[in-house]
Amino acid sequence: YGPWRRAARQHGLRHVVAVPLASTADDQRGIFVVYADRPAYFHTVGVGLFESLAHLFSAVLSEHVRRDA
Question: Containing H/E element for 29?
């Protein structure tokens, strides 16, 4: 998690969910990462919410690529 690791430790963010992003229009890839300071936060809220957001962000990325072409 690169530069975020230090910030996560500094702010007590010990729980993380990471979901891949992928454009369907080209080979662009990324990762959507969310940190939490509460145990079981992602279990309580539901990982599905963050997976849905990742799908939305991937669709936005794909549409951007198509419009730029």
Answer: strand 29-36
Q: Which two tokens stand for residue 13?
A: 């963010």
Handedness of CA 53, 11, 3, 17 (dihedral sign): negative
Structure tokens at 60: 């936005």
C-alpha 21/C-alpha 1 separation (Å) is 15
Q: Rounded to whole angstroms, what are the CA distances from 47 to 28, 30, 40, 67?
A: 23, 18, 11, 30
User: CB count, 10 Å around CB of 11?
Assistant: 10
What 8-state DSSP symbol labels residue 59?
H
The model's pLDDT over 13-51, given as tens digits with 9 standing for 90+, comes to: 889 899 999 999 999 999 999 999 999 999 999 999 999
pTM: predicted TM-score of the whole model, two decimal places: 0.79
